[in-house]
Amino acid sequence: MKTNKKILAVVSAIFFLQSMCSAQITLPKVFGDNMVLQRDIQIPVWGKAAPGALITAKLGPVRTTAKANQEGKWTVRFPKFKAGGPYELEIIESGKPDASIRLKGILIGDVWLASGQSNMEWQVQQAQDARKEIENANAPQIRFLVVEHDKKLSPQSDIQAGKWKVCDTANVKEFSAVAYYFARKLHGDQHVPVGIIQSAWGGTPVEAWTSRDMLLTSPISRASTLSNDTLHLDPEDLVADSLNWIRIWHIVLNPQNNADKIFPAPEYNDADWTGIEMPNVLKDFGIGNYEGMVWLRKKITLPESFAGKDLTLNLGHPEMNYSLYFNGQEICKNIWNSNATHSFTIPARLVQRGEITIAVRVAMLWGGGGLNPPADDIYITDGASKISLAGKWLYQKGLETAFPKILNYQYYPTVLFNAMISPLIPYGIKGFLWYQGEANAQAAYNYRKLFPMLITDWRQRWKQGKLPFLYAQLANFKKVQPLPAESDWAELREAQTLTLSQPNTGMACIIDIGEANDIHPKNKQEVGRRLALIANKMVYKKDCIATGPVYKNFRKDGNRIRIGFSKTASGLSTKDGKEVTGFAIAGKDKQFYWAKAIIEGNEVVVYSDIVADPVAVRYAWADNPACNLVNAEGLPAIPFRTDDWKGITQK
After folding, report:
1. By percentage, how much of the chain surpasses pLDDT 70?
2. pTM for the structure as a whole
């Protein structure tokens, strides 16, 4: 028995050596036709071949060589190139001219790695002015590589999938909107090709994008990272997870158990359904973290004047994926908010006198689902009269096939770094773009440590020095609060601002272009533009105003506090031309009140008749602050506070 095992081992070793010796030369998927390579650096190219193989690499007129090591790995570095192209890259293994690789359409320019969660991933076709932007997208010197989602417990040598694509009307719709608008402005200003490597995944925390070694250096992340040691991402589990998502989307797109014929029907008996006030997000009212299909119904009585007319039904701001029914007839099937206005025509043939039934089939995914406020945005009208749809609705879950279990391994520490960042290293880049933080808001205080850790981690691994790291601060979101209040989103923004103390970092403040009812604000053009402004000034040394007013200092002046600012350009003003809003003031009791604020030069004087002896001021300190302070360039003041009182996320 032992002899047979030895023979088997020897045979296996022979086959292994034969396979290694006959190994074909390969490149990782980050390299491909139409890619952009980084100018003004020694350009790294790497791959695999047979151990000991002599590799000749040719980029344009430049030729260089390397030898594969015992593992078959090889790396070449081309000398610095200026912006230009197109070039061809040819990789040849000595003695095997037929086993060569030739890549075409290569440009030399600036490459940016764009990463983060869903607001970085949000596509051009999902964002503002999608149709117009797609029709006008003809930028052959902008190229994108979209890295396919993947998660692994150990660092990988290659991405799962991804292909460089030229920016045109056919391809641009699936690109990151933020990264595309950044690239478009940068290309227009700097006149060099721009490549974007897009590696992002919605809903993911910063820990998932950071290496194990770095996470183990902090007590904040050490325990959760070590817990991965007991996690096993078996191939069967990953396949099952992928199949589960296929099943989920089949359910979302195809009503189960004849549901679309039964539950929208006017005659259906919904007496045992649960009442809920709409507009609202369903998870906040009894459903919790339920994931599956939910049905909503509402009966209203139409006036006689509506009968026989085309009507307009507006659902305001529904979340994600839903279908709308009127008296049992399907009016729309919306996928990923594909309808910008969520306003639909009810044809006259369906409009009758008296009571009618409106039904909405909603997919509950990632905690979403429902009709978001404000109430004024949900109604039905004939153009002359309007009937509100706000108020009591009925809902029921569990009427259709249940969703299979979602594993959500992408939330675990290191797994996205391993699968979606590590394989990209050391591809030559100009810098990083980052839009993330929503998933870390509930532990915002820890983000003060975790976010700089990620920046340091990536820079150390790329070995290109302190590469520029540009990021978007969280936009305004959620309900506007009538009184000053604590906010985890404000604390996350503060952590992002504090990260500016890291060298060569820049932050785009977007506190003025968010949406109360949508965590994915549509105006990605301005986000990309503001990030490009920072790049122009910080990276390309262009003389321009790149950021809004930044808090500098404060001093007490009787019963008033004077706030000093930098980055004021030619002066402070308000975005709407009205009185300054967004400031709150407090005394030693730490009770904040809305304050009056007056602009005096590069200072803002803040006071309140309620607070006789003020000690602290906060500006735009809320989930969705009503704030309007800007500089002469119209860029918003960055939210801040003068106090260091313990926040709600500080344990």
Report:
1. 93
2. 0.84
